[in-house]
Amino acid sequence: MIVGVRAAPEVIEDPGDPRVADFRDLVAGDRRPGTPRGTEPVIVEGVPAVQRLLASPYRVRAVFGVLGRVAPLDLPDDVPAYEADKWVLSEVIGFRLTRGVLASAERRPPADLDALLTGPDPSAPRRLAVLEALNDAENLGSIARSAVALGVDGLLLDPRCADPLYRRSVRVSMGHVLALPFAVLPDWPGGLERLHEAGYLTVALTPAADAVDLGEVDPRRHPRTAVLLGAEGPVLTPEAQAAARVRARIPMRAGVDSLGVAAAAAVAFTLLR
Predict the structure, then answer these.
(1) Whole-model pTM?
(2) Are 30 and 73 within 8 A, CB to CB?
(3) Taking a C-beta distance cutoff of 8 angstroms, is the pair 143, 267 a contact?
(4) C-alpha distances in angstroms, 66 versus 6, 18, 91?
(5) What is the pLDDT of residues 127-180, one digit of tens each?
């Protein structure tokens, strides 16, 4: 082997090969039966998302893709790399992979809650997204992607939220969720008081007619804001709305009562920049 040139990816011919066990039966849900939540490897799909993974603090366990798609990633020498024809790959993962490549990575623990609230500079402006019972992984991934794009500094999740590192969340976020710190507020909604103590204005999004226009919330007067978002359908519970400092709505054309939660999040992140 020429010095400085990485060996070609190993070819997998047997779908039962233990070397690709991280990628087996990915349609089974956010974890295999009997496996505690939050212990499975992080699975990342698609070349752009895998490239973001490689630039993130997450340790890559392995990369697996169709023939000819893994080598161009220029992986570090210590990352196991595997390729297979599309039929073997599909049999391993349980579906046809249109993005050509996957990676698995070690999980990182959630951020320390106090550190996430404070941030690197306790006096600097800061914005957080706070999610209640948001159990749709794809909506969570879309919110994470908008959060990174629009300068939100972190996610806070209530105990019922979906796993932000589940494969579908990571896929919809295009891997951006890997760059977004997140923590869980175990006491909900009582834990929102910790945000108030840290100087945040908590803004609960609701379509209710008696809520204030979101455009009236001036981010210059409130450099630290936290936007509360609930699941589509149930929206934020009355308890969460009551615990927030402000209830706000996005003004819309008559006859349309609300946006999807991911779209509403993007609008709120923009208005509160």
Answers:
(1) 0.92
(2) no
(3) no
(4) 18, 17, 12
(5) 999 999 999 999 999 999 999 999 999 999 999 999 999 999 999 999 999 999
